[in-house]
Amino acid sequence: MKITEFVVPEAILPELVADSKESAIRLMVASLKQAGKIREADEEAIVAAILKREELGSTGIGRGVAVPHTKHPSVESIIATVALCHAGLDFDSLDGEDVFILFLLVSPPDRPGDHLRGLETITRYLKKDDFCSFLRQATTREQVMDLLQEADDNLV
Amino acid sequence: MSDSQPIQRTVRLKIVQGLHIRACSGVVAIMDGFEGRVQIHYGNKSADASSMFDLMLLAALPNSELSLEAEGEGSELILDQIEDFLSHPSVPQD
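The joint structure predicted for all components is written out below.
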């Protein structure tokens, strides 16, 4: 699975300013709504589901990365957005460090394989130091998408 | 078998959502304090059971077969715990 197949370019937030985990998640879901990928009627339910999931354990997986996510029947295939929080954000991460890169995923409930493969793709890229470093330096949607495309093409 | 020798075990992944983030963090939590080494093999992929990123890269599907390999003092006990964790479907939803 390629990352550019499910990241919504119009929903990328290259300079996210958020003062809490909840506000970051709200802004990212709102961005997916504004991009036309989530119905307004589903927005609050999706936010609530992601926050509920975070209560079970943070998706701040270390290395300055968080992957908040949920499954929701309103999406027919996995969708995601990326946010870069250049100032760092307390996300209750597993390693106790602030996060700078957030990937938010919404997947259909009946396709666990797609969800796992989406996470696997994101993790595989984020494990590369160069990818993380370049991503953290990006400040525009175009830069983020170019980097994701390069990663899909094995150029970074 | 001595704990100093690597031991292996096969386990069927019963967590209904597969090896998702919460399941991975559960394995990492079990590994906390264990000074030996555990590898989890899935297909042609292998992961250090102490590494969140490694485990997520497995993307192991529900009902798949995993091979566990442990070495170090307390290997039997750590494999018991990991096997028990992976063999039950009751990890909270992800």
